[in-house]
Amino acid sequence: QLRLVESGGGLVQPGGSLRLSCVASGFTLDYVAIGWFRQAPGEEREGISCISHSGTTTYYADSVKGRFRISRDNAKKMVYLQMNDLKPEDTGVYSCAVSICTAASIRGANYWGQGTQVTVSS
To answer: For residue range 77-116, what is the model confidence (pLDDT) as tens digits?
Structure first.
């Protein structure tokens, strides 16, 4: 079965940090770009970051630019999202998916994970 599994979410105070992980099961990540998506309560899901298969191209939404950093380790089938200086508006369910990634955008999504909850609150 081809799937992605996210982990690393939790409750954190404003200004804190979390690192999310996305691991592939049943397929290799070597040739696919991976995106991170966020769905806040009552809002549509948005793409916030992505990384190309080689790691040479990354994209960040304006809302997270300068605070979040995406990286990958293909040997471990892992993609990470380091989130720093978290704000209450970062609260939501974070999911990873196979995506089309350019420096200017993230498009499409397939093989969604189940998501991991991030709550930023004091």
So the answer is: 999 999 999 999 999 999 999 999 999 999 888 888 889 9
Q: d(Cα 105, Cα 97) in Å, to the nearest integer?
A: 14
Length of the chain equals 122
- CA triple 92-54-28, angle to 5 deg: 75
Q: Is 102 helix (H, G, I), strand (E, B) or coil?
A: coil
**DSSP reduced 3-state for 70:** strand
Helix (H, G, I), strand (E, B) or coil at 60: strand
What's the pLDDT at 59?
A: 97
Amino acid letter at 68?
F
> Cα–Cα distance between 43 and 20 in angstroms, integer?
21
